[in-house]
Amino acid sequence: MLTTKRIAAAAATVLAAAGLSLAAAAPAQATAGQCVKFLRNQGYVIGKGVVGACDGAAGGGAGGQTGCIVKLVSLGVTGDHAKTACKIATL
After folding, report:
1. In this structure, are residues 88 and 35 in contact, taking their beta carbons and an 8 Å threshold?
2. Least packed by Cβ within 10 Å: which of 5, 39, 51, 55?
3. Domain residue ranges of the chain, discontinuous segments joined by +
């Protein structure tokens, strides 16, 4: 009986810890959509190039944040706005 209670208590502790870690991590994650939204709010026209740059930063793949900035600047986004947008995508 005591062993069963210990197993149940241990399982409950593990599940609670897992649930808390997932709940704590979710709000900190940004998306490419937030990058795009920032640029839209700054008055930029959003097209495939902007979405692709933000996706690249959010995915953290080849180029990541630097590639995102270079692409956005080539599309006419100011350097400061590009840096901010790409940083938002990687948070």
Report:
1. yes
2. 5
3. 1-29, 32-90
* CA 37/CA 34 separation, integer angstroms: 5
Residues 72, 86, 32, CA angle at the centre, nearest 5°? 100
- CB-CB contact of 57 with 72 (8 Å): no
Task: Please answer whether residues 89 and 35 qualify as being in contact, where contact means their C-beta atoms are separated by less than 8 angstroms.
Answer: yes
Task: Write down how long the chain is.
Answer: 91
Q: What is the pLDDT of residues 11-67, one digit of tens each?
A: 455 444 444 433 444 444 569 999 999 999 999 999 999 999 999 999 876 578 999
Tokens of 79: 């350097």
Q: How many CB atoms lie within 10 A of CB 67?
A: 16
Q: How many CB atoms lie within 10 A of CB 32?
A: 23
CB-based contacts of 9, cutoff 8 Å, min separation 6: none
